[in-house]
Automatic annotation (TrEMBL):
Domain named CAAX prenyl protease 2/Lysostaphin resistance protein A-like: residues: 112-204
Protein name: CAAX prenyl protease 2/Lysostaphin resistance protein A-like domain-containing protein
The organism of origin for this protein: Vagococcus salmoninarum
Cross-referenced InterPro entries: CAAX_protease, Rce1/LyrA-like_dom
Transmembrane segments: 7-28, 34-52, 72-91, 111-132, 193-211
Signal peptide, first to last residue: none
Keyword entries, A-Z: Membrane, Transmembrane, Transmembrane helix
UniProt record, GO biological process: CAAX-box protein maturation
A molecular-function term among this protein's GO annotations: endopeptidase activity
Family, per entry: Belongs to the UPF0177 family.
PANTHER family registered for this protein in UniProt: CAAX AMINO TERMINAL PROTEASE FAMILY PROTEIN (PTHR36435:SF1), SLR1288 PROTEIN (PTHR36435)
Superkingdom, natural source: Bacteria
Amino acid sequence: MNKLWSIIKSVLIIIGLFLLYNIPSFFLALEQPVLLWGSGIVIIGLLIWVAIKSGYFNSRAKLLTSYNLKWVLGAFVAGRFVAVIFTLLMGEASKNDIAIQEMTKNLPIGSLFMLLCLLAPIGEEIIFRGAILNSISPLKDNPTQVRQLMGLLVSSLLFSSVHLSSNVMGFLMYASLGALMGLVYLKTKRLECAIAVHFLNNFLPFLFLALNN
């Protein structure tokens, strides 16, 4: 019974986090930068608060180490390589990238930064690595490699499924990127490191969109 309740609780938390994360997107159509920033800051604060209360941030493992830095930079470089290879194989930008360009073409740079470089990295890592991966393979329990692999697989597939992939290549690209960030989380035991990789991964598209707006 306790195990069933634990599963139900985890699912409810994940659904709640996902709904919370998507609130600022409703302000995109209003073209109100102040509302977008205000809601974004509040939502990020709430997401972090839930993540801390749920134990997704591990303060026992060291954060600022050369080991963690190598994983962050290595995953970022690997992620860029993956993105380039899959984009070449698809012969065009992913449906998700096209949708982002369309939705953000009239956004001020500040609002663009909020969505791509703050809300997306923090929110998506808390949901997919903190909540989903960690619920399947809790780091505090020293999970087996099988549990870690299962958590990595499920979280990566779900991560890809929300990124509007229109073909197999696009789906595999986002699943691979999700797996890289999940691997960073498992290896460093710090959600902040996965967030850093996601931030770096989104910062380049932000620069491209900002310079072309």
